[in-house]
Amino acid sequence: MLLAALKTLRPHQWVKNLFVAAPLVFSKHLLDADFGVRAALATLAFCALSGAVYTFNDLRDVTADRLHPTKRHRPIASGALPERAALALAGTLAVGALGLCLALHWKVAALAGGYLVINLAYSMGLKQVAFVDVGMIAAGFLLRVLAGAAAIDVPASRWLLLCTALLSAFLGLGKRAHELAAAGRAGRDAAATRAALAGYRAPIVKAAMGVLAVATIVAYAAYTLDDHTAAFFGTDQLIWTAPFSALGVGRFAWLALASDKDGSPTEQMLRDWPFLLNLVAWGAVTLGIIYGGA
Questions:
Q1: Helices marked H in the chain — which ranges?
Q2: Which of 14, 102, 179, 293 pairs with 258 at a CA distance of 20 to 30 A?
Q3: Burial of 131 from C-beta contacts in 10 A (0-12 / 13-18 / 19+)
Q4: Residue 210, class by beta-carbon neighbours within 10 Å (0-12 exposed, 13-18 middle, 19+ buried)?
Q5: What is the CA radius of gyration of the chain?
Q6: pLDDT tens column, 177-210
Q7: Sequence-ordered list of residues with C-beta below 8 angstroms from that of 76, at least 6 positions apart, any chain
Q8: Burial status of residue 205 (CB atoms within 10 A of its CB: 0-12, 13-18, 19 or more)
């Protein structure tokens, strides 16, 4: 049952919670042990909250999942994880995570509570409303960044929030575009896979992705060229990281719109070696520029 519980928590999805640590990196406190511990604890708390939300979502959808050809194998739907145990697991994780956030700072707890509320609202119906579902996903990423900033008591950069909002909306629409394309190739009704897809139209989604892709790349480049950025980091060399952001956005767009592989593009990108190589290169160059003179 322990393995079933772990599978329900979706640990492979926890990589999204690295956004909690973004303020640590871009506030130049990565090498400060005290700040690092606080950021790590906040990230851990959001991983626990994510697991609680995934468990609650599977509990709510258990009847439909049992009728689905693949989702019926999920631990709760298959009976590998009893519903009572799953409910207790979700509650324990949520309470524990909020308690940990409160120990860090009341602002972290408030932001974590907001994250939990919007995700429960998403699970209980808003995930079925086109474009609202993507907006909720983007809001979740923004709350992660804000909580990470509150955990180490630094102001959240407006540039970081803007880039996060644009990027997360782009990723969310990319997932929807891939789901529409997959349903079309299989000759099935897209809404049967995800109710919200009934309100999406492929040309509109692709156009919106194009706008968000350009906006994300331009916003990040503008951030690297901003006078305040140069003054804060003591260098104007961050512009050299902009090509990596453009390549990453472009590669994800290809995975979402051109790839015929199974699985969502957000999961594919974590197994796609060109994307990962570019991500590692961006991280190395960024850290080298910010902390090279430390």
A1: 2-8, 22-26, 33-60, 62-66, 75-78, 83-104, 106-123, 132-151, 158-186, 190-193, 202-225, 227-233, 242-257, 265-268, 273-291
A2: 14
A3: middle
A4: middle
A5: 20
A6: 988 888 777 666 666 667 788 889 999 999 999 9
A7: 8, 55, 58, 59, 62, 65, 83, 86
A8: buried
What CATH code is assigned to 1-156?
A: 1.10.357.140
Average pLDDT over residues 138-151: 97
Q: How far are the Cα atoms of 180, 205, 232 from residue 188, in angstroms, in the given order? A: 10, 19, 53
Nearest to 112 by CA among 171, 169, 161, 52: 52
- Count of CB atoms within 10 A of residue 15's CB? 12
How many Å apart are CA 44 and CA 138, to the nearest integer? 20
Give the span between the Cα atoms of 26 and 4, in whole angstroms.
Answer: 37
pLDDT of 67 above 90: no
How far apart CA 114 and CA 102 sit, in angstroms, is: 13
For residue 190, what pLDDT is reported?
65
Percent residues over pLDDT 90 in the chain: 71
Give how far Cα 231 sits from Cα of 122, 125, 268, 293, Å.
40, 46, 37, 14
CB of 146 within 8 A of CB of 21?
Answer: no
Domain boundaries, the chain: 1-156, 157-294
Can you tell me the distance from the alpha carbon of 45 to that of 162, in angstroms, rounded to the nearest whole number? 24
Location of structure tokens 């809001």: 139
CB within 8 A of 246, min separation 6: which ones?
A: 217
The overall average pLDDT reported for the chain is 91
Q: Which residue has the higher pLDDT, 276 or 191?
A: 276
Give CA–CA dist 229/152, Å, rounded: 20
Q: Contact 113/119 with Cβ under 8 angstroms? A: no
